[in-house]
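Usage

Read records sequentially. Each one opens with the input sequence:
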Amino acid sequence: MLNRLEMLRIFCAAADAGSFKDAAIHLGISPQAVTRAIQELERLQGEMLFHRNTRQVRITSFGEQLAERARTSLQQLDGLFAPDPASPPDDMSGVVRLAAPSALGRSRLLPIVERLANAHPGLRFDLRLTDQRADVVGEKIDIGIRVGALRDNRFVVRRLGKTRFHVVATPRFLRRHGTPARLEDLPALPCTGILDRDTGRLWPWMFAGDRQINADHARFVCDDSEAEYLLVRDGMAIGQIAGFLCDDDIAAGRLVPVLGEHEPEPWDTYLYRPQRGPVPPRLRLVFDTLVQELSD
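and closes with the structure output:
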């Protein structure tokens, strides 16, 4: 394909110049290379493209028609590699598809997206905020945030920090229902549970030493971690909540952590790109900005 494209470029140069020698000078190749390309193209077309003798060449009627078609095709091909004239001057334009856990996306990601959108009017954002694991291929995700293990070695990954999980409740809830002293006390309390829509089951509560407690006894079940947090913050239940949601409430005394000695090891939080290879400027900008602003 490359040779045939080069053939067409040489042919068009010869047609425009009206001389194999002048075409060779323009292209920086030898006159013999022009002659060979024209002869091969004539063989492929089954038609003479130039009348020629020792003194001059003159394009044939068939050659004129082919040259017109070839110029159009080459212009269209070259246009695929030309900068988009509609792009903003900073070359930051196009769609960026982002995936993140719902609560983390709303609290941490959206403010960054708003700043980037204001700074670069050509950028468009497609946000997939869900606590379910994103289908990065099916949803054509460009950049994602994930809490927990990332096992796909094809991803380009940057670790942002760690996420802690606390069992918390309001002071009023604990006065009314009592403060649990053991893990075995939790099932007797009004608890929350997060539904994994992929399996139809509730996520278990995780504790130190890889210990788990089944959440089937939960009084309030939802599939959104921020809704779970709001139920706990409003004193309706006790729940195991990510630190990025409840740390400020703990510091202010609105929520009280319990069973701290059983707190699980913090989970790593990652920023990832699903594909290796060339990175458009818009994706590089968003990825680097997220690394800078979300890293602990």
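Summary fields computed downstream for this record:
- The chain has nine helices and 15 strands.
- The radius of gyration is 32 Å.
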